[in-house]
Amino acid sequence: MSTPKTPLPGLLVLSILSARWDDVWPGLLHELEARFGPAGHVSDLFPFDQTGYYDKELGTPIVRRLLAFDALRPLDELAGIKLLTNALETAHAGQRGRLFNLDPGFLTLERLVLATGKNFSHRIYLGSGIWADLTLIWQRRGWVDFPWTFPDYAGEDMKSRLTKLRQLYKTKLNNQKD
């Protein structure tokens, strides 16, 4: 018999896509920090060019920024966080649609799980219309993707960035033990 156990908290990671950074930044960062606490990592902007899926709605060229927040959070908060980020997208949307796309997820030592409002065969329902997408797993000192992993997350640039965030997460876990 397995014994239920509360997992270690995760590192809240947020991917932000936008073609209008001058219009949304740094105000969006302040709003996110008001909801999730200080950001311990704010990446530089880097290209999002693996797909044209968001081009019509967000405009072009779309660039991405990754955030990771200082406070580690319980993993069962993921659905609520996705609902909150959806509300932020809607609150800032213009007549032509969203100004940005927010994709929250939890990074742990073992995996990266993103939240989504779209069902698919490999996704697990969390509640409130939100699913968990197992995007990457950590195995033998590196990230392993799946056939369903979004191309941008399967790329070496993103995996390198996530490896640095995983090290940040490990440091936070070790500091909690002290």
TrEMBL record:
Q: Which domain of life is it from?
A: Bacteria
A Pfam family found in this protein is: DUF4416
Query: InterPro entries given for it?
Result: DUF4416
What's the protein called, per UniProt? GTP-binding protein
> What is the source species?
Pseudodesulfovibrio aespoeensis (strain ATCC 700646 / DSM 10631 / Aspo-2) (Desulfovibrio aespoeensis)
